Amino acid sequence: MANVQVAVVIPVYNEEKNLPALMQRLMPVMLGLGKSFEIIFIDDGSHDQSLQILKEFTKNSQVRIVELTKNYGQHAAIMAGFSITRADIVITMDADLQNPPEEITNLVKVMEEGNYDVVGTIRKGRKDSFFRILPSKIINMVARKITGVTMRDWGCMLRCYRLPVVQRMIQCHEHATFIPALATVFAKRVTEIEVAHEERHGGKSNYPLRKLINLQFDLVASFSDLPMRLIMYGGVLMSLLGICFGTFLAIARLAYGARWAAEGIFTLFAVLFVFVGLQFFALGVIGEYIGRIYREVRKRPEYVIEKIHTR
Ligand code: UDP
Ligand code: MG
Predict the structure, then answer these.
(1) Which of 215, 259, 282, 286 lies 20 to 30 Å (CA to CA) from residue 165?
(2) pLDDT digits (tens, 9 = 90+) for 8-19
(3) 238-267 pLDDT, tens per residue?
């Protein structure tokens, strides 16, 4: 296929109820852009009729399908889609119509006018249950703090990326990836716009709390060493408190006599705190090494050159 201008990459996992409606709304939007385009669906090992429905779509030459052997997860599926496109602008979105396809027009417009590398999105009026929103809120906050990337909404997958950013991402052979975060490593000009958010069209969310926690751990672990730092700091703090407590006991013992310190039991606690603290500290140090090993095996590029300027 010749290079097209815009590609839409959509991971699909058991979305038979949503695919026809999705296609019906997406097609007019893409045609309305007035650019050459392709739509890439990735069947992430669905075990309903999704793949059959998708195959029907290929009657339309603008549609391509990537069939994966099993369920690899949303982000891996998107990566698979990324790997086959050469479009200048690559858009990712969900198949469940929670991201209105109509927003694509604006997304592309913002990207072109501002010459951005990445345009992210913020869901306004999110239509999810409270128990789905609360974890996301916490995730967004933690992600911002920990990774130091100031993105307001991490979870919304309706985003668009320039081809160089996409290609840099697929060169990272990471198993635990979180695409919106990874993109920020490789993009220079990033912005976010507000998009509408709708109820899931049909079926139910593929993210029960367990998967959500898993995904969150992917994000935190692959972008920060904070969790093990906390262990280390906690250990140091505990040791210091133990030492303070010991000192206090020693002084009190001298001033008030042995009875006051319950005949040495408190002293035992003080000593215990110091040693438990040291143990945590040692655990943190080991973690620090593991973190470094993890960073090395991830093989993320040490730097990314945006452009070389000469006269
Ligand atoms: N998805 C996928 N593989 C998975 C889980 C989800 O390809 O293992 C796709 C799913 O078909 C949908 C998108 O990822 O297009 C988002 O999933 P979902 O709507 O379940 O997540 P939520 O909106 O609850 O975050
Ligand atoms: Mg959804």
Answers:
(1) 215
(2) 999 999 999 999
(3) 999 999 998 988 888 888 876 776 667 788
Is the CB of residue 146 less than 8 Å from the CB of residue 220?
yes
Cβ within 8 Å of residue 224, ≥6 positions away:
146, 147
Q: What DSSP state is assigned to residue 154?
A: S
Residue 107 banded pLDDT, cuts 50, 70, 90: very high
Give the CATH number of domain 6-224+305-309; options: 2.30.40.10, 3.40.50.300, 3.40.1160.10, 3.90.550.10. Answer: 3.90.550.10
| Atom 2 of ligand 1: nearest residue by CA position | 74
Task: Please say if the pLDDT value at position 88 is more than 90.
Answer: yes
**Ligand 1, atom 16: closest residue by C-alpha:** 94
Compute, in angstroms, the gap from residue 121 CA to the centroid of ligand 2: 15
| Six token digits for residue 196 | 């509408």
Q: In terms of Cα–Cα distance, which of 210, 208, 231, 228 is closest to 220?
A: 228
